[in-house]
């Protein structure tokens, strides 16, 4: 139940958030607009012509009433400087509501009909602009400029610079109003502000009622979610943190001793403090389901637990370590402990390799070289700090790409993020990462916390990291042709795999397997390590490089479009599908499309390996 509540809560927040932005933008417009123009009164004449008539010259109202159908009201008014008796047969609450009138010449007793000529004359009388009449139309039903008007009206259009239209009610000759381009623009913002998307001219609309229910659900689901997290122990106040001893066992039920855990730190991070590392590709978000433990006594399960464990496993005490704290726990069995360790990483070199991607080289302090399979990643601990939205020392060639980014200093809380190593450990004792800046889409959102923190580090500065974690690597003892597909900073693990299989440095050729590398970027500036791969393809007939640009300039001679589409076009030329292995890393949309396409082609799932984009 809770996963559905969380999902609906998120979608409801999108709907409410969009409408809040519309309210904000329309409210700003209302503060800046010219209210006279927005009312459509640019060329409206407000002078009133007084008609002086001696009462004895007018027909007796009783005579008029006897000559026409029964009326509920008789009033004296004037049209075009002539006195008029207006007989009201049906009277609505307001003038724009449904009404029925008869107009009578107060001198002669003859009925007056508002025809096209009279409508034009009335329109001219209320108009003070330079235009002439362009067209006159009798409207029945909804009038777009005045949606509250329920009675037929004449629309008289003038050919001035603001396209003025004057509306005259056909039954009474009343000026319904003036409208022009300024009023129509203002009406759009009124529509957005009051959610009058069906142009009813009223707050009491179906969309307003639906929005009220969406907002109510957003509030209720948020409240339910908050209560649920509280019952599951997800809120821990640091002021009340204390130490609690927990007995640990390995998966063979052998004792690992008794360790103390802070009740303020989740079990996954608490184990790290004791140099015990559980696998976790999501950094503690509860989405990967890797940090499995068995807890005794069995505490309340979280929605993330319920996604990754069966009811039987939940009853046995299986939980995700990232979702729970040491409160009320006596025993904990670790189902899978990695060989990963916590390292202090010192930055040795940093450089831009595209407008928004930097290459960072680290060395571990106080330890020998780390041995790992190509495609492994490290989990970085980002401390609470201040970061800059625009990095220093941007190369001149890349500065135009940063012109739209606002310069600001922002504070952020501590977090963890995972990044793949971009070189295999056989080539260098340094750990190399390609990290992409994530600029903020608007001022209300922070830029990418980890990317800006790490990419703003200077040589000599250090950061803590866990790893390496080996989740995405080349199948052993296989001679199948390798097909690599990537985009953006998904380059990192794929470059490491190429380095491991062939050796980018060309100092060694570790494999005789044929490799096809399809890599997508926006333009040539974003095509990282291109020179290295072109050179490698020239020197090694087993390696084939296919760069693809989605927005190339006129000088680009290579493939254009999206990398997944170019792969699909060339797939049949790569050989028998049963003799191919696929390695995919990049944005989620790219991976989903590639994997779906390969599965439709009949590629076995065992021959498709992918790295969750980090």
How does this structure look, described?
The chain has 614 residues and is α+β, with helices and mostly antiparallel strands. The protein folds into 5 domains: 2-35 and 200-231, no CATH class; 55-179, no CATH class; 240-334, Beta-grasp domain (Ubiquitin-like (UB roll)); 341-469, Elongation Factor Tu (Ef-tu), domain 3; 481-611, Rossmann fold (3-Layer(aba) Sandwich). It is 26% helix and 27% strand. The protein is built from 14 helices and 27 strands. It has a 6-stranded antiparallel β-sheet with strand order 19-16-21-14-15-20. GO terms for molecular function: iron-sulfur cluster binding; oxidoreductase activity. Keywords: FAD, Flavoprotein, Membrane, Transmembrane, Transmembrane helix, Ubiquinone.
């Amino acid at each position: 139940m809770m996963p559905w509540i969380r999902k609906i809560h998120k979608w409801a927040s999108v709907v409410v958030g969009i409408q809040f932005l519309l309210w904000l933008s329309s409210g700003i417009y209302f503060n800046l607009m010219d209210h006279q123009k927005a009312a459509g009164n640019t060329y409206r004449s407000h002078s009133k012509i007084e008609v002086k008539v001696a009462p004895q010259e007018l027909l007796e109202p009783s005579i008029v009433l006897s000559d026409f159908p029964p009326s509920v009201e008789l009033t004296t008014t004037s049209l075009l400087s002539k006195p008029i008796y207006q007989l009201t047969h049906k009277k609505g609450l307001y003038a724009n509501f449904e009404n029925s009138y008869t107009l009578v010449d107060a001198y002669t007793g003859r009925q007056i009909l508002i025809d096209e000529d009279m409508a034009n004359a009335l329109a001219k009388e209320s108009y003070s602009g330079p235009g002439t009449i362009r067209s006159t139309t009798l409207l029945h039903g909804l009038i777009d400029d005045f949606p509250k008007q329920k009675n037929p009206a004449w629309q008289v259009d003038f050919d001035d610079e603001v396209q003025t239209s004057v509306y005259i009610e056909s039954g009474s000759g009343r000026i319904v109003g003036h409208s022009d381009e300024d009023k129509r623009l203002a009406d759009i913002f009124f529509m957005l502000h009051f959610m009058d998307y069906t142009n009813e001219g009223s707050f009491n609309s179906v969309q307003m009622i639906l929005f009220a229910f969406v907002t109510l659900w957003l509030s209720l689901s948020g409240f339910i979610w908050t209560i649920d997290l509280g019952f599951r122990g997800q809120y821990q106040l640091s002021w009340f943190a204390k130490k609690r001893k927990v007995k640990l066992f390995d998966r063979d039920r052998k004792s690992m001793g008794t360790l103390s855990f802070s009740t303020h730190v989740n079990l996954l991070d608490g184990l790290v403090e004791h140099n015990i590392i559980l696998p976790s590709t999501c950094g503690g978000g509860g989405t990967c389901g890797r940090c499995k433990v068995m807890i005794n006594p069995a505490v309340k399960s979280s929605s993330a637990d319920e996604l990754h464990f069966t009811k039987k496993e939940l009853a046995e005490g299986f939980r995700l370590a990232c979702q729970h704290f040491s409160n009320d726990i006596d025993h904990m069995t670790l189902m899978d402990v990695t060989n990963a360790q916590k390292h202090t990483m010192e930055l040795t070199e940093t450089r831009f390799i595209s407008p928004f991607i930097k290459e960072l080289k680290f060395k571990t302090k106080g330890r020998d070289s780390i041995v790992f399979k190509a495609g492994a990643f490290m989990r970085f601990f980002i401390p609470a700090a201040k970061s800059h939205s625009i990095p220093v020392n941007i190369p001149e060639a890349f500065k135009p790409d940063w012109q739209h980014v606002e310069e600001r200093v922002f504070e952020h809380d501590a977090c963890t993020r995972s990044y793949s190593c971009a070189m295999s450990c056989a080539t260098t004792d340094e750990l190399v990462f390609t990290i992409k800046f994530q600029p903020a889409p608007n001022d209300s959102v922070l830029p990418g916390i980890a990317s800006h923190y790490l990419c703003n580090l200077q040589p000599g500065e250090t950061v803590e990291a866990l790893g390496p974690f080996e989740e995405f690597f080349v199948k052993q003892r296989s001679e199948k042709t390798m097909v690599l597909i990537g985009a953006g900073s998904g380059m990192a693990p794929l470059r490491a795999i190429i380095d491991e299989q062939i050796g980018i440095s060309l100092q060694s050729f570790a494999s005789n397997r044929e490799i096809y590398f399809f890599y997508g970027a926006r333009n040539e500036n974003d095509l990282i390590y291109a020179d290295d791969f072109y050179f490698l393809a020239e020197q090694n007939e087993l390696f084939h490089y296919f760069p693809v640009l989605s927005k190339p300039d006129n000088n680009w001679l290579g493939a254009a479009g999206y990398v997944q589409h170019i792969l699909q076009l060339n797939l049949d030329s790569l050989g028998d599908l049963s003799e191919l292995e696929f390695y995919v890393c990049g944005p989620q949309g790219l991976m989903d499309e590639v994997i779906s396409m390969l599965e439709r082609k009949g590629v076995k799932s065992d021959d498709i390996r992918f790295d969750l984009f980090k």
